[in-house]
Amino acid sequence: MSVKTTEKTKKTKSISFMLIFPVLVAVIYGVLLAIKPEQGLLALKNSGRIFLNILQPLALVFVAMLVLNLFLKPGQITRLLGKRTGIKGAMLSVVAGIVSVGPIYVWYPLLKELRKRGTGNAQIAIFLYNRAVKPFLLPMMIAYFGWVYVGILTVLTVLASITLGYVVSVLIKEKDRPGSVI
Amino acid sequence: MKIMISAEGVDLESHVAHRFGISHYMILIDSETMAFEAVPNSGATAQRGAGMQAVVFAISNDVKAVLTGYCSPAAYRQLTANGIEVFTGLSGRVGEVLEKYKKGELGKRTEDNGRLRSIARIDSASLVHALTGSTRQFANLLPMLISVVLLIGLFNTFMSKGLLSYIFSKSPVLDTLFGTCFGSIMAGNPINSYVIGAELLNYGVSLLAVTGFIIAWVTVGIVQLPAEIAALGAKFALLRNALCFALAILIAFLTMTILFLVSG
């Protein structure tokens, strides 16, 4: 119950933040259009140009999201993060991090619970790091930076996550948690 | 094999709880050794989402079968999709129900229960469900993305290349450090970091600094740090973020080195 309440509070806070930012931008534009209409219109034109450029990759992002939602159930991610250790545990944490969706605050309470039930610090660190690799955003990233760059960055990110998991497991000892070091 | 039974009490003499999600206890039993453990159900007093909490509990405890009075269709779908057998419509004492299960006298719930079936077959209901979920996720990221694009429009109008050149000094180490710091402070969907990163490139900021920025955007969370400390502890959160900051710089340099070698 307490976990749920915390999650709800964080969600409310994040929704407020999500509203504050667009409102702030709208206010800035409102003021700008009132005092310097020419520059305000130029800023809008610049924004329109950027938005047109991202429309195509955005459509691919939606398709990739749909495919993931169709074949991946939230519970399967939790299962990947279970209590498995060693290389297999690390690899499953990598997969869980990559396929996880949604803002990070949604995951904190669940990670807290999983940790109580034996999931190691290394696995949690690996999971959090691999949230940087998002298959459904790859079309967007490739459109901007090219597939060679994206390929190199993705592989390095996964390798870095495993290194991070190892260092975390060495520096933070797992008390009363058998076999949790990767 | 581990079996989970929703129960009113803490031992095998207690009654099977009718509602899976809001039962007072979950009894976990090893069907071979008959060793059992009663765990208070954290969702017992929950207003909403109790079923899903119980599903997460079952999955994380590697349960193979759930025995209960009733479980919601949503919880049922999640359990079976994760390879857990579900037996419903049960009542009486936990020990008696367990014996019946061991003798194979219980009938499984008659709805779709095949893991393979759920993977292999895309029916219209799951398509609508996925479509709704994707639309919601997409709609959630749009307000922030549009705001970021509008902000970049402002940035393009007012920011001079001279000022950016002043901030990004063309020293690889300092540039990357600035980029990584900037990414560590910012938060939100990674898609925004790509849009901002690409615009920074247009302004002549190095790809090295932009790479540090993109990686730090997701892996280092200064804004979320209090929430991370509350959930996972100060030592873990601070160490993880510090290491991620260092790794973002390291990855930026490695990426550029490999990119240089690959593209000659």
Explain what the structure shows.
Chain A is built from 8 helices and no strands. By secondary structure, chain A is an all-alpha fold. Chain A has one domain. The longest helix of chain A has 35 residues. Chain A starts with a helix and ends in an 11-residue tail after the last helix. Chain B has 2 domains: 119 residues, Nucleotidyltransferase, domain 5; 107 residues, no CATH class. Chain B is 59% helix and 9% strand. A 5-stranded mixed β-sheet of chain B has the order 3-2-1-4-5, with helices on both faces. In chain B, helix 1 packs parallel to helix 2 and helix 8 runs antiparallel to helix 9. About 4% of the residues of chain B have low confidence. Chains A and B meet through helix 1, helix 2, helix 3, helix 5 and helix 6 of A and helix 1, helix 2, helix 5, helix 8 and helix 9 of B.
Helix content of chain A: over 70%
Strand proportion of chain B: 5-15%
As for the number of domains of chain A, it is 1
How many domain regions of chain B?
Answer: 2
Structural Rg of chain B: 26 Å
The CATH architecture of the largest domain in chain B can be named as: 2-Layer Sandwich
- What's the number of extended β-strand segments of chain A? 0
Write the CATH homologous superfamily of the largest domain in chain B: Dinitrogenase iron-molybdenum cofactor biosynthesis domain
Shape of chain B: elongated
Strand content of chain A: under 5%
Quickly give the structural class of chain B. alpha/beta
The CATH class of the largest domain in chain B: Alpha Beta
Mean pLDDT of chain B: 81
Number of helices of chain B: 11
Radius of gyration of chain A: 21 Å
Q: Main sheet of chain B?
A: 5 strands, mixed
Number of helices of chain A: 8
Distance between the termini of chain B: 56 Å
Q: Tell me the series of helices and strands of chain B, N- to C-terminal.
A: EEEHEHEHHHHHHHHH
CATH topology name of the largest domain in chain B, in short, is Nucleotidyltransferase, domain 5
Order of helices and strands of chain A: HHHHHHHH
